[in-house]
């Protein structure tokens, strides 16, 4: 079984809709991250959390919110999706070391 | 303003030869550098890393070299194998920013049989 899972894997939605992307991990890590990847760009950090009560904005948090429901779960919400939020979204986890473990990604298309 | 740059979007190498992937950075304060590998429809997976206090780290077929004066690092894969065909990302981290990773745009490596 995968250590970091993301649901859904693919989603097509319309402008203005609320979308939630979910991430679960079985690695027992405290730190969790949400990134987006756009063509020709590296991964950009949206939000990160170092434990259940800790939420931090990343480089591109506008238009997004997160919830850390438990150590193992970290969800990303788009309150009102817009077309330029069409991207590949990755969740990742880490312990205190630098290495991050990634989920398989969610491909989101906003029409 | 990209702090981490991978200037080659793609690289094609013959199987068995050496693959050299390059990465440049602008912030001399970065403490740690990492290489990740990504296959289609999968998340990136960690490959190898190097601390800023070292200039070389080796792990099997993979070696990372760091040239701090040039703000340049490279990943060498010897010998290259078909399974190495993937997108390779370099990333840099700052201890003062809780080791948030700053990513390059990636280089697609194609190993030709």
Give a quick set of tags describing it.
heterodimer, A: 111 residues, mainly beta, seven-stranded mixed sheet, four-stranded antiparallel sheet, globular, B: 113 residues, six-stranded mixed sheet, 11 strands
How would you summarize this macromolecular structure in one to three sentences?
The complex is a heterodimer of chains A (111) and B (113). By secondary structure, chain A is mainly beta.
User: Structural class, from helix and strand content of chain A?
Assistant: mainly beta
Biggest pleated-sheet summary of chain A: 7 strands, mixed
Counting H and I runs of at least 4 residues, what is the number of helices of chain A? Answer: 0
Order of helices and strands of chain B: EEEEEEEEEEE
Number of helices of chain B: 0
The total of beta strands of chain A comes to 11
Content of β-strand of chain A = over 45%
- The portion of residues assigned to helices of chain B is under 10%
Q: Mean pLDDT of chain A, rounded to whole units? A: 93
DSSP strand count of chain B: 11
Low-pLDDT runs of chain B: none
Q: How do the SSEs of chain A run, as a string of H and E?
A: EEEEEEEEEEE
> What does the largest sheet of chain B look like?
6 strands, mixed
Task: Work out the helicity level of chain A.
Answer: under 10%
Q: Give the overall silhouette of chain A.
A: globular
Distance, first to last CA of chain B? 38 Å
Low-confidence stretches of chain A: none
* Oligomeric state of this protein: heterodimer
> Which structural class do the helices and strands of chain B define?
mainly beta
Can you walk me through this structure?
Chain A is an all-beta fold. Chain A has no helices and eleven strands. In chain A, the strands form two sheets. In chain A, strands 2, 4, 5, 6, 9, 10 and 11 form a seven-stranded mixed β-sheet that branches. A four-stranded antiparallel β-sheet of chain A has the order 1-3-8-7, with no helix packed on it. In chain A, a hairpin with a 5-residue loop joins strand 4 and strand 5. In chain A, 36% of the residues are buried. The model of chain A has no long low-confidence stretch (mean pLDDT 93). Chain B is mostly beta strands. Chain B is built from no helices and eleven strands. Chain B starts with a strand and ends with a strand. At the A-B interface, strand 5 and strand 10 of A face strand 5, strand 9 and strand 10 of B.
């Amino acid at each position: 079984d995968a250590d970091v899972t993301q649901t859904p894997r693919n989603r097509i939605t319309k402008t203005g809709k609320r979308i939630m992307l979910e991430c679960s991990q079985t690695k027992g890590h405290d730190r969790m991250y949400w990134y987006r990847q756009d063509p020709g760009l590296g991964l950009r950090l949206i939000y990160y959390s170092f434990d259940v009560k800790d939420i931090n904005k990343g480089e591109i948090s506008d238009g997004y919110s997160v919830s850390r429901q438990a150590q193992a779960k970290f969800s990303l919400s788009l309150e009102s999706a817009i077309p330029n939020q069409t991207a590949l979204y990755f969740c990742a986890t880490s312990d205190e070391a630098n290495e991050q473990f990634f989920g398989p990604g969610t491909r989101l298309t906003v029409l | 303003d990209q702090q981490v740059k991978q200037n080659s979007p793609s690289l094609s190498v013959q199987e068995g030869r050496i693959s050299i992937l390059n990465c440049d950075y602008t912030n001399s304060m970065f403490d740690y550098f990492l290489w990740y590998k990504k296959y289609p429809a999968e998340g990136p997976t960690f490959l190898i890393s190097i601390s800023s206090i070292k200039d070389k780290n080796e792990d099997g077929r993979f070696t990372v070299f760091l040239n701090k004066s040039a703000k340049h690092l490279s990943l060498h894969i010897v010998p290259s194998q078909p399974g190495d065909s993937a997108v390779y990302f370099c990333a840099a981290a700052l201890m003062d920013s809780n080791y948030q990773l700053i990513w390059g745009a990636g280089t697609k490596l194609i190993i030709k049989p």
